[in-house]
User: Which sequence fits this backbone?
């Protein structure tokens, strides 16, 4: 493991920001720290950078314990959420800052900065001030500034939060590509699951100061390991009493049951529903157009949940009666998660 | 086109009040300076303001005002820094004391400073041991001007420092800057517009300061006689035109200083405000 956190604890007064945090990150990976606000993800990032100090535990980078090494000597690049570009310095001076403070050779600084400006595609903007750049351009400058001194680790705090949706998509791809190309071990903080699933090699899910789960985006999405992750990922809805839906195994002491839209097949009364006998009747309560699909809020068996239908499928009206079939669902028992599959699919497989 | 609603009603009324205030308090008195001076021919004006005693007073006034304002620019930043960045008992009280030089009658300040810094005074005694005289020298004038000018710099820098995002310092720190580099390269540029404003205001004020200085200056012609005192003595001799001619020079100097400060502000707001 290249970066390792061992038994990290950190409190602010009564608030426990990090509760026995343990994880490791391999060299060259792009990792997302994902969690709701207040889950302690930014605190973890700031502790790795040396901007905060853990109450107990060890932070190890490249085999060396860095707890007592000041931020300025850890060899870390940090991109702030608001970028924190120096307002009275030009783009060139901003990027050159990390080299100049180390008294680097003037020619070497010139070369390195020119190279980085080319990398971020801002040739001709060297003498602009940050106020004369767009949000996306500022973010690129912040990225180049952090990379200039060749850090071993790049940390990014909500790197896309301050950018509008359209540019965000583009920047995400760009950043992912850049980091792959440079091979620098990177950790970014986000509260946006789409962003984490899209960009990261590995996701670390945090919740109320603890690490809930670590794994690849696919693993975490497909097989949530804790009650929190099962409800956090996807557009989950909670079912009131899942046993009212047909052919699911009974688990007596379960706490909650969750479904995602992709677990549900919703059909109009006159459409073919493969598992008609196991489907439940529901009423459409709300419709939202989402661009490439339509989102329906359905009430069935006392539960309200969300189902999707493609644009080319016939439209369903509010108040219309529909058939709903649930393929699978998550139930939580304590902090454990179980995936339950609908029994009627299994039976059919036996028949075949 | 509908009219935009404004919080203070009546553009005509509020603009009228503004103009009358400006005219009565600022423009007419300043214009009268020019009118009185105009009674003299240009060569007479030149003769008045290049009298040896007047030139010497300009030198005394400008040098002491400049040194005092420079001291204030440095000390004002230190004071503002301590008041913003640290917590300590009686902080609010100390914060309030900064304004005392504004509130105190300047003559009172002059008398107390004089008695304190005279060779027999509590502070003057210590310096007298080393053969340094403070009261009745240019050092004494500078001390009085520092006293008068300190609130300007502190009060311009303080709000800027309070609003300064600590992120800039963190960003510089992670990039490997040490504390003095962070201060010089990151914090100082953020503060410098406010420091220049404070410096300019303090300097302008120092040029015209009379009450607190006359007591401690000693008023020896050619040595510690300040320009405002010369103006006063011309007035006492009913030589109004000479007085206003000298005053006009001070006015011009103050104007140039404030103009330069404004130029710096314009440049800074360009850097921060975007546009190409």
Assistant:
């Amino acid at each position: 493991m290249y970066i390792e956190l061992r038994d990290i604890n950190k409190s602010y007064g009564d608030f426990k920001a990090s509760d026995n945090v343990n994880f490791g990150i391999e060299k060259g990976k792009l990792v997302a720290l994902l969690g709701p606000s207040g889950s302690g993800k930014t605190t973890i990032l700031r502790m790795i950078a040396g901007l905060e100090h853990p109450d107990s535990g060890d932070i190890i980078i490249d085999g060396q314990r860095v707890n007592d090494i000041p931020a300025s000597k850890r060899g870390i690049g940090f991109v702030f959420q608001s970028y924190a570009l120096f307002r009275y310095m030009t783009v060139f001076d901003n990027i050159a800052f990390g080299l100049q403070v180390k008294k680097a050779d003037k020619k070497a600084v010139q070369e390195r900065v020119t190279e980085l400006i080319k990398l971020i595609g801002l040739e001709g903007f060297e003498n602009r001030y940050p106020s004369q750049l767009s949000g996306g351009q500022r973010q690129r400058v912040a990225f180049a500034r952090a990379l200039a001194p060749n850090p071993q680790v790049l940390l990014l705090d909500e790197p896309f939060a301050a950018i509008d949706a359209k540019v965000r998509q583009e920047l995400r791809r760009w950043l992912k590509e850049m980091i792959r190309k440079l091979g620098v071990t990177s950790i970014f903080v986000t509260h946006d699951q789409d962003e984490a699933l899209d960009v990261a090699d590995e996701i670390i899910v945090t919740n109320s100061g603890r690490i809930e789960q670590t794994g690849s985006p696919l693993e975490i999405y497909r097989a949530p390991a804790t009650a929190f992750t099962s409800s956090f990922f996807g557009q989950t809805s909670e079912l009131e009493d899942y046993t009212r839906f047909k052919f699911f195994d009974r688990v007596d002491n379960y706490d909650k049951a969750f479904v995602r839209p992709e677990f549900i097949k919703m059909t109009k009364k006159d459409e073919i529903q493969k598992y008609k006998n196991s489907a439940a009747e529901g009423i459409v309560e709300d419709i939202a157009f989402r661009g490439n699909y339509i989102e329906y809020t359905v009430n069935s068996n006392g539960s309200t949940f969300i189902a999707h239908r493609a644009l080319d499928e016939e439209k369903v009206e509010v108040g219309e009666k529909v058939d709903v079939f649930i393929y699978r669902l998550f139930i939580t028992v304590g902090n454990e998660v179980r995936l339950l599959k609908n029994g009627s699919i299994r039976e059919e497989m036996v028949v075949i | 086109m509908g009219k935009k609603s404004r919080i203070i009603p009546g553009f005509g009324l509020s603009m009228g009040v503004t103009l009358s205030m400006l005219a009565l308090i600022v423009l007419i008195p300043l214009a009268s300076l020019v009118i009185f001076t105009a009674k003299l021919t240009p060569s007479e004006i030149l003769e008045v303001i290049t009298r040896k005693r007047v030139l010497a007073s300009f030198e005394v006034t400008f040098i002491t005002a400049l040194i005092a304002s420079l001291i204030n620019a440095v000390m004002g930043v230190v004071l503002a820094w301590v008041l913003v960045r640290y917590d300590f008992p009686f902080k609010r009280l100390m914060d309030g004391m900064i304004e005392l030089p504004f509130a105190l009658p300047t003559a009172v300040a002059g008398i107390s400073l004089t008695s304190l810094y005279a060779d027999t005074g509590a502070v003057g005694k210590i310096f007298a041991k080393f053969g340094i005289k403070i009261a009745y020298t240019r050092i004494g004038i500078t001390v009085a001007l520092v006293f008068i000018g300190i609130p300007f710099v502190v009060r311009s820098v303080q709000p800027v420092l309070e609003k300064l995002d600590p992120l800039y310092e963190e960003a510089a720190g992670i990039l490997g800057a040490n504390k003095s580099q962070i201060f010089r390269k990151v914090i100082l540029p953020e503060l410098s517009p406010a420091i220049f404003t404070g410096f300019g205001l303090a300097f302008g004020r120092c040029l015209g300061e009379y009450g607190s200085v006359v007591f401690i200056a000693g008023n020896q012609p050619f040595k510690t006689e300040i320009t405002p005192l010369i103006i006063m003595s011309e007035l006492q001799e009913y030589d109004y035109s000479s007085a206003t001619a000298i005053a006009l020079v001070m006015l011009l100097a103050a104007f140039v200083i404030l103009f330069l400060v404004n130029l710096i502000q314009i440049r800074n707001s360009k850097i921060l405000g975007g546009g190409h």
User: Anything to note?
Assistant: The mean pLDDT of chain A is 90.
